[in-house]
């Protein structure tokens, strides 16, 4: 038996508003399909983040929780060290925003982020709520990813810096607000896709696991997931 | 509710006028409004006729219809939507306000939980004369209720803590343990309760015990609802014990827990609308291996985004076969797969040739959990038994 893939689930009580805990469940599930053992460390604010985790996961959350989480992570410092050494990080919605330089707090004023990716977020003219479909970009940073599906619910529009590639190009929905969706920088993936993200996009889960283990995974397609994806695309895009 | 809309258009002040001084209590919460209101109406009926909404229509139009159709001398008890509560308190001047719990509910159309708590808090600052009966175990409810002039605290429990992880006052992560909670940041803590739910019993302020095992409504959440009602009954000067006797006669509430014939099956129908409700509902399902039906829709009234399925511990259903149905049955199927729960995906389990799990057709009633629109559809198309 190989060493388990250690997954740090960061502040699930603060950042986990839209079923984002399903991302960690799916990482374990996709790993188990390949016989890879996993270990999940649920980190609560006040606890130190593990420095040696193989993969870090942040979910979405309400405005006040987002600010509290960001302050705790700033103080802790381990996530910045993880990013520095190239550990894979998945960050959803509020978690995605707080990895940048600024994001709007509960009053709409800019709050300082962790500056792990060159991006910044400000308020959208109207809240983005609904199904989100995006196609992988030409320079996706992800290998062989299929069309993305998820559900977005956020008030922030995100502008990417010059060195940061979007995760995808929006086919339906709002995403970053400028026709792009999400961001990929090194082994950090940020996205507005809930649903949860990895449940509906197992390619991203597999990519994160490959980065974490340093070795390619055998492709696995699950019929139930394929059915769900097909039904979502049919419903959102017609046809 | 067309009638209600017409009344409010012709007479925008109709709720004020119709309410007069006969509104004994308003009930609000994310979960359990309809059941709690029904239990409270039963309890208060010990002193004479009580009117409540017949259908759970809990916004302005439903409230004005209930008031306009009720006898002018009847005591009134109303359930009120969380967002409509501040204006309704001003319009109806209740003597008691019963506040049960706050958790996220279809966030794609509702306020965030903390926003609701803040609006309730402002409401109580503006209405210091109302007596509040509030769940001390829910920190979001406490944040609102502590602003009231008079509060009867009830330790009614909080099975779902994920939406009150952070202090509503200062943003610090709350401490929890030994059945209590506290804020290490600003010193808020659970108030000492006058009433306590302890297992199958409620304990009153004088130490007297009320056996809640007599209730026909199932689950810990209904014992919590009943404990809040006992406290409200007491606050209104009536006898909690006589109230409990009446509560124990309730066996279904607007279709919830009712038995229906739908197609070839007899089902017992359960409603849950959000992760907190689902989580507690799974606890009252029969033990494995008895199969159950779970119906997930994502229409407007259900919430368009069913990703909350991943917040619900469906692992609790392991050891049986679940029939996954509803428009979002595929989302449920993936959730059940990863929870290790055996399931079959069936578009219409009520069709005569539906490939149901063995033995399901022979059950006296199949337990069926449903989201709002699915519940409503089954309740209105099924034959009540």
Key descriptive features of the protein:
heterodimer; A: alpha/beta; Rossmann fold; 4-stranded antiparallel β-sheet; 12 strands; globular; B: about 375 residues; alpha/beta; UDP-N-acetylmuramoyl-L-alanine:D-glutamate ligase
Task: Please write out the topology.
The complex is a heterodimer of chains A (239) and B (385).
Chain A: E1 5-10, H1 21-33, E2 38-43, E3 55-58, H2 63-76, H3 78-84, E4 89-92, H4 94-97, E5 102-104, E6 110-112, E7 119-136, E8 148-160, E9 168-172, E10 180-181, E11 183-185, E12 188-191, H5 197-200, H6 202-213, H7 223-237
Parallel strand pairs in A: 1-2, 1-3, 3-4, 4-12
Antiparallel strand pairs in A: 5-6, 7-8, 7-9, 9-10, 11-12
Chain B: H1 2-10, H2 14-19, E1 23-28, H3 33-44, E2 50-51, H4 60-69, E3 75-79, H5 85-92, E4 96-99, H6 113-126, E5 131-135, H7 139-145, E6 150-155, E7 175-177, E8 180-182, E9 195-198, E10 201-203, E11 209-211, H8 220-235, H9 240-247, E12 259-262, E13 265-271, H10 275-283, E14 292-295, E15 321-325, H11 329-339, E16 342-345, E17 366-370, H12 372-381, E18 383-384
Parallel strand pairs in B: 1-3, 1-4, 2-3, 4-5, 5-6, 6-9, 13-17, 14-15, 14-17, 15-16
Antiparallel strand pairs in B: 7-8, 9-10, 10-11, 12-13, 12-18
Helix pairs in contact in B: 1-4, 3-8, 3-9, 5-6, 6-7, 8-9
Q: Could you please describe the fold and organization of this structure?
A:
The complex is a heterodimer of chains A (239) and B (385). Chain A is α/β, with parallel strands linked by helices and 239 residues long. Chain A has a single domain, classed as 3-Layer(aba) Sandwich (Rossmann fold), CATH 3.40.50.880. Chain A has helices spanning 21-33, 63-76, 78-84, 94-97, 197-200, 202-213, 223-237, and strands at 5-10, 38-43, 55-58, 89-92, 102-104, 110-112, 119-136, 148-160, 168-172, 180-181, 183-185, 188-191. In chain A, the strands form three sheets. In chain A, strands 2-1-3-4-12-11 form a six-stranded mixed β-sheet, sandwiched between helices. In chain A, strand 5 and strand 6 (110-112) form a beta hairpin. In chain A, helix 1 (21-33) packs across helix 6 (202-213). The longest helix of chain A is centred in the C-terminal third of the chain and has 15 residues, at 223-237. The mean pLDDT of chain A is 94. Chain B has 385 residues and is an alpha/beta fold. Chain B folds into two domains: 2-247, Mur-like, catalytic domain (UDP-N-acetylmuramoyl-L-alanine:D-glutamate ligase, 3-Layer(aba) Sandwich); 259-384, Protein-Tyrosine Phosphatase, Chain A. In chain B, 31% of the residues lie in helices and 19% in strands. Chain B has helices at 2-10, 14-19, 33-44, 60-69, 85-92, 113-126, 139-145, 220-235, 240-247, 275-283, 329-339, 372-381; strands spanning 23-28, 50-51, 75-79, 96-99, 131-135, 150-155, 175-177, 180-182, 195-198, 201-203, 209-211, 259-262, 265-271, 292-295, 321-325, 342-345, 366-370, 383-384. In chain B, helix 3 (33-44) packs across helix 8 (220-235), helix 5 (85-92) packs parallel to helix 6 (113-126) and helix 6 (113-126) packs parallel to helix 7 (139-145). The longest helix of chain B is centred in the middle third of the chain and has 16 residues, at 220-235. Chain B starts with a helix and ends with a strand. The model of chain B has no long low-confidence stretch (mean pLDDT 93). The A-B interface holds A 13-14, 16-22, 25-26, 29, 44-46, 62-65, 67-68, 129-130, 151, 153, 194-196, 199, 222, 224-225, 227-228, 231 and B 104, 107-108, 112-114, 161-162, 165-166, 171-173, 304-305, 307-311, 330-331, 333-335, 337-338, 345.
